[in-house]
């Protein structure tokens, strides 16, 4: 009965209030005139209809503004607009629906991440922004045995490109990450880039050169404007590049390029490549296996070639042995090729010289008759006459020490005047003598001398026969024949000596 009295009293008060103001008041005798229903209570609230999502969805033709409280799934208040149910988000709970609007103030994540997923299964990996504006794509600690947490960054169809603008010397001297590990890292203070991994402090600030880059594993680049790529390379020189594995460029070097494995460079503007090769000197080159250019302006190529500390040398060696070919003097050219040498002076490779393999000690001139044309016989007697008119003797080149550098031979001008024209074309020039032409002139002259000697020998034999015939048959006296014979013998002997 008591409850009935209270209900009746409430209704009377509400009716009285409605009659006076046009508003309904519950718990108040003076409801606000702007409200159709004004409820006033202490320790109590308004409890609207509660139901699960299936019951809510089953309401037929819900009018606009109808509101219920859903008890399962996305719990909370739902209201209907145009026949569609909309959820009223609770900003204090995860899974906020920010809606489609324009922010009027900064969005403060409050130490939380911006993640994807659904309300029922929100993601755990997302963007985190600290108070300084540092953005991190952070994930929960990787569980043991998990090798793909699906975290990553994809930029698709970025037609405007990708830009990270920084200024050298600004920011922290400590890289974003130090110590061992795999990472992709840009350090603004040094203007340096790293991609790959290290097992120690190779990518710490103490080992990071300005405007340097390292790609691969365990590559250290402490020099400025330098680059290393591959495995376990150590670049301490400036303006240097190192590619391959286990190579090194000394800190006193500048502008060196090293390619290969276990190669070393020390000095300025050097080139080293291959296996176990090294340079110790400025402006030098060592390419191949165990080649050493340990002097300035030295070049060592091939296998086991060494400048041997001699500057200005060029040493090139084959692969026949493990003993180094070493330079023996400054500014020297040394070569070892057990298979011989070939030098061609035309594109068809039909003209040139060669040095025989395995012990050849003189140049061989290509003289194959099948490779020659327009052959013309020479008059040996004319050659002898021309040789007789040449200035033959000893001499030395200007600037050479006459006590040790004297030579025998003709003058190029005389040789060219005597043999430079054969009626078909020009042979040589008036400042040099081709060794092949020199040998050819000598052979023609020798052939002419031989023929003269044969003729004199025949005449000498005839005279001897005449001398041995009976005096009655002999025309001249024996004394006259004897004199003539002696003259012939003298002449033959002189020709033979020449």
Automatic annotation (TrEMBL):
Please list the residue ranges annotated as the Peptidase S74 domain: 367-460
- Which superkingdom, per the lineage? Bacteria
The positions making up the signal sequence are: 1-19
Keywords linked to the UniProt accession:
Signal
Q: Which PROSITE patterns match?
A: ICA
Q: Which Pfam families match?
A: Peptidase_S74 (PF13884)
Statement: the UniProt record of this protein carries the keyword Signal? yes
Q: Does the keyword Signal apply?
A: yes
Name the chain's protein: Tail fiber domain-containing protein
Supply the source organism for this entry: Hymenobacter armeniacus
The record lists the lineage as: Bacteria, Pseudomonadati, Bacteroidota, Cytophagia, Cytophagales
């Amino acid at each position: 009965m008591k409850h009935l009295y209270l209900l009746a009293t409430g209704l009377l008060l509400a009716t009285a209030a409605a009659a006076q103001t046009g508003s309904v008041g519950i718990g108040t005798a003076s409801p606000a005139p702007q409200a159709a229903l004004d409820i006033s209570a202490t320790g109590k609230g308004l409890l609207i209809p509660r139901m699960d999502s299936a019951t809510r969805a089953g309401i037929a033709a819900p009018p606009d503004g109808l509101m219920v409280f859903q008890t399962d799934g996305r719990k909370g208040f739902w209201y209907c607009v145009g026949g569609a149910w909309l959820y009223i988000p609770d900003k204090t709970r995860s899974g906020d629906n920010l809606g489609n609007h324009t922010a009027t103030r900064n969005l403060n994540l409050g130490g939380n991440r911006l993640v994807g997923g659904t309300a029922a299964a929100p993601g755990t990996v997302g963007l985190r922004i600290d108070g300084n504006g540092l953005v991190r794509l952070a994930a929960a600690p990787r569980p043991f045995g998990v090798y793909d947490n699906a975290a990553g960054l994809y930029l698709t169809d970025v037609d405007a490109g990708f830009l990270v603008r920084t200024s050298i010397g600004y920011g922290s001297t400590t890289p974003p990450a130090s110590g061992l590990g795999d990472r992709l890292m840009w350090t603004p203070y040094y203007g340096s880039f790293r991609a790959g991994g290290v097992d120690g402090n190779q990518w710490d600030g103490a080992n990071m050169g300005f405007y340097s880059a390292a790609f691969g594993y365990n590559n250290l680049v402490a020099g400025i404007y330098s680059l290393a790529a591959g495995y376990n390379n150590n670049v301490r020189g400036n303006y240097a590049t190192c590619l391959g594995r286990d190579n090194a460029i000394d800190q006193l070097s500048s502008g060196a390029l090293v390619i290969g494995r276990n190669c070393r460079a020390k000095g300025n503007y050097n080139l080293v490549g291959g296996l176990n090769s090294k340079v110790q000197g400025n402006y030098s080159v060592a390419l191949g296996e165990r080649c050493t250019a340990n002097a300035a302006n030295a070049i060592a190529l091939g296998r086991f070639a060494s400048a041997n500390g001699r500057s200005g040398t060029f040493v090139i060696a084959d692969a026949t042995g493990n003993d180094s070919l070493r330079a023996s003097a400054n500014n020297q050219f040394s070569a070892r090729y057990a298979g011989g040498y070939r030098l061609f002076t035309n594109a068809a490779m039909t003209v040139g010289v060669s040095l025989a393999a395995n012990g050849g000690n003189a140049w061989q001139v290509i003289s194959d008759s099948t490779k020659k044309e327009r052959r013309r016989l020479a008059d040996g007697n004319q050659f002898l006459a021309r040789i007789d008119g040449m200035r033959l003797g000893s001499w030395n080149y200007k600037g050479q020490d006459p006590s040790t550098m004297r030579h025998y031979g003709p003058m190029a001008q005389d040789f060219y005047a005597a043999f430079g024209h054969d009626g078909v074309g020009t042979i040589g020039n008036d400042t040099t003598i081709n060794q092949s032409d020199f040998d050819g002139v000598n052979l023609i002259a020798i052939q002419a001398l031989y023929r003269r000697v044969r003729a004199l020998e025949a005449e000498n034999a005839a005279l001897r026969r005449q001398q041995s015939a009976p005096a009655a048959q002999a025309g001249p006296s024996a004394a006259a024949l004897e004199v003539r014979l002696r003259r012939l013998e003298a002449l033959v002997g002189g020709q033979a000596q020449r």
